[in-house]
Amino acid sequence: MSPILGIYASQISGHLSTNNFSSIATQTVGSGGASSITFSSIPSTYTHLQIRGIYRSNRASTADNVGIQFNGDTATNYSSHELYANGTSALVSSDVSVAQIYAARASAASIGANIFGGGVIDILDYANTNKYKTTRSLSGFDDNSTNGQVWFESGNWRNTAAINSITLFATNGNLTQYSSFALYGVL
């Protein structure tokens, strides 16, 4: 948390805790892009995980999905639910028994140059071996025209294993250079 936010938080009655997030790792896509990035050897010492990112896909469209998989599981053990808006309408959708959670929305190649999507993905109770894993996220992008989007998504991985690796990827293209993801442990 930034020092300024910590100062503000301490002024609130019954103030917010400012030491709940621990940086685990950050990955930034280099020149030429990447099909995916993976966080591995994730310690099981936190209650939840959070991923903060900026990202862009090379898909020949205005947008793409950022998919997430856990522990190398590429089978159809995932589900997603989406609520999204594009400035003129709001829509809902769901995906059941798919090979990834649709965890965020990325800008893509047909949108203006250097416009990246951004978002936050929470992975709840990631080390709890008594339940399936759940995600929630808020993401989107804006290009100051009619192509902006905002997405609220939730997902489920039907597996009780503790999560020790996370793979993120653009579902219809590749992540472009400068796409960056930071993984945090939440106490």
Percent of sequence in beta strands: over 45%
| CA-based shape | globular
Give the H and E element order: HEEEEEEEEEEEE
> Radius of gyration, rounded?
17 Å
* Overall number of strands: 12
Class of secondary structure makeup: mainly beta
User: Any idea how many domains?
Assistant: 1
Tally of contiguous helical segments:
1
CATH class: Mainly Beta
Corresponding CATH architecture = Sandwich
* Helical percentage: under 10%
Distance between the termini: 14 Å
User: Could you report the average pLDDT, rounded to the nearest whole number?
Assistant: 90
**CATH T-level fold name:** Jelly Rolls
Unreliable sequence segments: 7-16
Can you list the strand order of the major beta sheet?
A: 1-12-3-8-9-10-5-6
Give a quick account of the main beta sheet: strands, pairing sense, barrel closure.
Answer: 8 strands, antiparallel
What would the keywords be for this entry?
single chain; 187 residues; mainly beta; Jelly Rolls; eight-stranded antiparallel sheet
In brief, what are we looking at here?
The protein has 187 residues and is mainly beta.
